[in-house]
Every structure is written in structure tokens, then in C-alpha cells.
């Protein structure tokens, strides 16, 4: 009733009010939420830690992780589920089944992507290749060149997803293999410089493919305090631009919250890692809008 | 009058607004990143809700046959251990370290003989590579996995006697009970080695000796740089854990002794 009274006052007010209403409803419809869920270094930890474990009693477990993911998917429509590598090695499940169960369970949880960690070479290239039929998700690595191995064609540099009209580009990075993995395990896999490769990836994903969101799925490691020259996620963030989020692994780093780093041009990048062994699940939500009244490019990061 | 002027202004503004709005409606929508939220969720039993109970039960059921096979296998009794063996260092050696080094030398040498018609003279492993104790009682393959969770495999390196001397010097200066077999010596008060015997025979500096170790140490791990001076390396593709489990399967009773392979004066 109040509204009708008001409309009757002047035509212009009516028009403005009408416009205002349509604008606000327009905005409400167009807030797009993209939810990124991630794990790293799960290392074949399928069962929860036992209750008498000195470090992580009753933590982790694939079935509980699946429940957590399912609950999130129930509320959030546009979810990407990613793993930053080292799926293999750490419990007899790997020694007995070579990673088959790990891949099958990740497929059941509807993982979208994983990158390749150094321990994923632990049964050699043929060992990894043999498990590929069990993975219903894709593998990405932009700086490992598998051309002269059995894995040729099975690992793409990046993958693009379109979720609710938002284009999301995810590219993968792997750690330097020489000195870390036995050459007889990685064979002719070529490691390329992560920074140069990232610049290429960003050019493709941000500028050619016009992705609204660029994510780096990395197994480089969060930080190396004793080896400042070694490339890590924090360094990669400062040396590149147009990456929105770096999801890391390898160093089994437990963070209180995602780290916010300034990139090459002073924009903010999120770097995150969630420890290891499936103890935690990382969640990053991106909210996009098209509200033309707020043309400033400022974004708020709540961590 | 005043009211009319205001009305005109509003109308003018409205026309401008409408024009802008139409233009912006026609142009392609540009997505703007507004907010990012980050959080970490602990995976605990609290994650299981009434809605996800069935899902959890389904996954557990899927895992069960895989788990049962491992448990049956790992928990079947292979041997008996009369006393608890551990890494506790007495005279720079430990009961579990001695067992590891003796078994690796014995089993490795058998493979080395078949492959190369040669024998392993010395075995040197790293104390850090032993990750659990071997408790008194029944011994299972699970003990093997706990003691040796890593996938390290046996490597034999041909070293001259001079490098064996370096190995001994390293051993003395590190003061760590690295598992050692095939080599005995006395550490004198001045920290020099005396009465060095390899397979019971005195050390000859220019003689070639075959030293069994793991691939981690062979590649310079734990700063065992003398291994890098090896004249030949033989990769036996035999995991140390499997050596240990094969030994458990072969014997009824595990025997490890604290002997005088190293005497500290």
C-alpha cells in the first residue's frame, strides 16, 4: 500500500523507483559465486588417523571428506574440487594397490583436477600410467613435458571451466624433479621453469581466453626459508601477474589462513595450502558482480 | 515555480540515467570480482551429517575389501621377537640398527652374488631411516612397514680402502649410531680408529670393497659424500623393507645382538 501511495505522487518518481527496483533485482541475480575446494599431499591417507595417534588423532579420512564436500555442494552450486598433488605414497594402500583406490575415491568425490606431485612418480612413469583409467578427473601440469614418456597426452597444461557464465582457467605446476625424484622414475619427463611457464599460461588464460578467474594448482612448495633462490608459491606470486589464486602443496604447510601477496603489478594474490594427509579441506569463495554503480576495481578479501 | 524547476531537473537527470542504463544494458556484461572469502575446514567425524550418513556408509563399504586384504596380510604373524629392539645407542650401535645392517648385508649379498658374482663386504645405513621399534612378541609385515615406511632400495657401491677410511672418520665424527655391518673397529681416546677389520681382515687402502647402502645415502644423503667417490654403483632394485620382511618370513625367531663390532675406548 505504501508503495502505491508513493507512486501516485509523481511520474518521475515512479519511473526512478521502477528503475531502481529493476536494477536491484538485476544485481541480486547477477552475484555469481564460485567455490574452490582443495586438498594437497593426501599421501594415500584413506582411513582417518587412529584415536591414539600422537599428532592427528581422529583426523582426516576419505569418507568424512566426501561428506564435507557433499554438504558444501548442497549449498553452493558452482564448485571446483582440486588437488595439488602427492596423492600417492604414505600408507600400505599405495604399496598394495599402487594408487588405484586413491584415484577411484577421488573420482567418487567428483574431483575436477589434480596436478602431479613428486611422489606421484614413486612407482615410475608406468606406475602412474597404469592408474590413469581409475581417474575420472583430469591431470594438469604446464611445466612438466611428458612428450617422450608413456604419459604423453594424458596431462594437459591447463583446463578451462565455465561455471554459471564465469570462465575459470586452472593451470598446473610441478616441483623440480632432479635431485628429488630418481631419474629412473621420472624418465624423460622434462621440467621447465615455473615462472616462464606461468607467464605463458596467464597470457593464454587471461588475455586470449578471457578467463575471469585464473588459478594456479602448484606442487612447488609454499616457501623455502633455507633456500631463498628456490622457486616457491610465495615467490611465484610476486614474480607474476593476473593469477588470482595459487593452491599449493609439497611442503605440507599448515596455514592459519590463506596468505595475501602483492603480485608484480601490486595486485593481490591468494596463496593457500592445507597441510597434508587429508586433515583439512581448503575453501575459497569468489563473488563476482556486474553492478555498474561500483566501477572501482577494489575487491575485499576476507580470510 | 520552485517545484516545477525541481521537477524539470529530476526529469533531465532521469533521461540521462535512462540513456546510460540502456547503453550499459546493450553492452556486454563485465564480471567484476567483488569479494573473496577463504577458510579451512577440518575433516573430522563432525563432517558427517544425517544427510551424508548414507554416502559415508557407501564409501566405507567400498574401501572395506581393500582394507581387509591389507590387514590380513600385514597382521599375519611371521616370526617372534624375544626382546624389544630399538635405536637406543650403546657404543654407537643399536640393537635394531645391528639387525637391519646384518640382514641387509646377508640378503643383499645373496642377490649381488647371483647378479654380479660378487659379495657385499660392508653395509652402512642411516639411523634416521629407522622409523619405529620392533616390539617384543609377534612380528608381522606391518612392523616392516612401520620400521621402513620409505621406498628406499639397496644399492652397492665399490669403494677403495681409502674411502672406507673416510667412512670410518665420518662415522666417528658424526657420533650417530648408523647401522653398520661387516666392518669392526676400535675408537681410541683421541677419536682415531684402530684395529679396523673388514669381514675379519685388515683394511687395505687400495683394495676395492663393496658397500651396501640405500639409494638415499648413495646419492649423498646425510652428507655421506664418500659414496660419491664410488668406482661403480650397482642398483639391486631390492627395497630395504622387503629385505626385512623376507627375513621375518624366513626365520622363526628374530635374533639381534649388541656385540663388539665397535669398541669405544
Here the CATH topology of the domain at 89-129 and 152-239 and 259-264 in chain B equals: 5'-nucleotidase,  domain 2
Q: Number of DSSP helices of chain B?
A: 7
State the major sheet of chain A. 6 strands, mixed
Classified by CATH, the class of the largest domain in chain A is: Alpha Beta
Mean pLDDT across every amino acid position of chain A: 90
By secondary-structure content and strand pairing, the structural class of chain B works out as alpha+beta
- CA gyration radius of chain A, whole angstroms: 22 Å
Structural description of this entry:
The complex is a heterodimer of chains A (303) and B (265). Chain A has a 6-stranded mixed sheet, with helices on one face. A 6-stranded mixed sheet of chain A has the order 7-8-10-11-13-12, covered by helices on one side. In chain A, strands 5-9 form a two-stranded antiparallel ribbon. The model of chain A is unreliable at 5-28 (pLDDT under 50). In chain A, a hairpin with a 5-residue loop joins strand 12 (259-262) and strand 13. Chain A contains 9 helices and 15 strands. In chain A, 46% of the residues are buried. Chain A has 2 domains: 1-30; 33-288, Purple Acid Phosphatase, chain A, domain 2 (4-Layer Sandwich). With 303 residues, chain A is an alpha/beta fold. Chain B is α+β, with helices and mostly antiparallel strands and 265 residues long. Chain B has a domain at 89-129 and 152-239 and 259-264: Alpha-Beta Complex (5'-nucleotidase,  domain 2), CATH 3.90.780. In chain B, 40% of the residues lie in helices and 24% in strands. Chain B has 7 helices and 12 strands. Chain B has helices at residues 2-26, 53-74, 95-116, 141-147, 161-174, 215-218, 240-250, and strands at residues 32-42, 77-81, 122-124, 137-140, 153-160, 180-181, 183-187, 193-198, 201-202, 208-214, 232-239, 262-264. In chain B, the strands form 3 sheets. A 5-stranded mixed sheet of chain B has the order 6-3-10-5-11. A 4-stranded mixed sheet of chain B has the order 9-8-7-12, covered by helices on one side. Chain B is elongated, with a radius of gyration of 34 Å. The termini of chain B are far apart. At the A-B interface, helix 2, helix 3, helix 4, helix 5 and strand 14 of A face helix 1, strand 1 and helix 2 of B. Strand 14 (280-289) of chain A pairs antiparallel with strand 1 (32-42) of chain B.
